[in-house]
Amino acid sequence: GQYDNLLNFHYENVKNKKVLDVGCGRGEWLSKCLSFGFDPIGIDENIHMTKQCTTKGLKVIKNDIFAAMKNLSEKSFSIISAFHLIEHLNYNEIETFLIECKRLIEDDGLIILETPNIDNLSVATRTFYLDTTHKTLVNPDSLLFQLQEFGFHGEYFMINGNNNLSNNPRTIFNIFDGSAQDLLVIASLSENTKRNLFNEESAWLSSINHGMSTRQSATFFDEDYDRLKKDFYTLQKHLIVLENQNNRLEQKILFFEKIFQIRLLYTLHHLIKNIKQKIKRLLFRIAKKIYFNFSK
Q1: 3 state DSSP class of 119
Q2: How big is the chain by its Cα radius of gyration, in Å?
Q3: Distance between CA 80 and CA 73 in Å, rounded?
């Protein structure tokens, strides 16, 4: 999975292995964290989801997320995650959630948030509203600013697109639906943790399924359009040159046709003249024979 290298990286750099997954659902993330050696616990108010978690042997709290978080100890978690949760909260609830995250996370811990990406036009205008429990379209810059106001240091990434930076069909369709469908935000209270986490040499960064932004898709489309426009103008210039060459060639052909016609007329004139002379000589001979025959 795209978060495996991140979990490995974090596991090697922290002592506290406790993970809190808020809105844990069926427990897929809890299971993954457990397999990497972490000690995860989930929160979900849906009894059907919590039953699936307990069936798998996972620790889970069945409760409203805010009530559950208030009962947890300060600075007790190394990772707090929320996958596709905050879009179900209003702005005040998101703020309350982030405040609780700050209280519960260790200074060198990580906040991992994933939510639908409003930069994808199809998501922002259509698919987001398929789930009637969705409340808030989360602006990535606004969320990052909000985290910074609470003392976090982080970055966001647009992930899970229909195409990526290395393979992008450059069409209008991809401007509307090809950009990243999800937003990933990773933050820490420690500036040093952020520095180490987002170091260019960090292997986990390359394993994330980065997607294009709508701006990137539009830029690629514009670049292709400009290139095709230049190619069109170049071809148009070549066509004009060819048309001029064709006109000159046609003029030469007409010239030679006229010359050919003149030569043909000249030849016919001489041919007719010769025929007339031969006819005259033939008539003269015939007349001469007739004269000799009558004169006898």
Answers
A1: coil
A2: 42
A3: 13
SS3 69: helix
What is the largest distance, in Å, between two alpha-carbon atoms of the chain? Answer: 158
Poorest-pLDDT segment among 216-220, 246-250, 284-288: 284-288
**CA–CA distance from 150 to each of 10, 72, 101, 193 (Å)?**
22, 19, 10, 16
Residue whose token pair is 């052909």: 253
In the prediction, which pLDDT does 215 show? 87
Measured in whole angstroms, the distance separating CA 124 from the mean position of its chain's CA atoms is 16
Residue 51 identity: K
Locate 56 and state its tokens. Answer: 């798998």
| Half-sphere exposure of residue 177: CA atoms within 13 angstroms, side-chain side | 5
| Residues 232 and 238 sit within 8 Å (Cβ to Cβ) | no
With contact defined as beta carbons under 8 Å apart, do 82 and 43 qualify? no
pLDDT over 70 (residue 291):
no
What is the pairing mode between strands 39-44 and 18-22?
parallel
- What is the value of pTM for the model shown? 0.78
Going by C-alpha positions, the residue among 117, 130, 86, 137 that lies closest to residue 215 is: 117
Q: Which two tokens stand for residue 224?
A: 């292709």
Q: Are 172 and 223 in contact (CB under 8 A)?
A: no
Q: Tell me the C-alpha to C-alpha distance, in Å, between residue 232 and each of 223, 226, 229, 239.
A: 14, 10, 5, 10
Q: H/E element holding 60?
A: strand 59-62
Q: How far apart are CA 137 and CA 85, in angstroms?
A: 12
The answer on pLDDT for 12 being more than 80 is yes
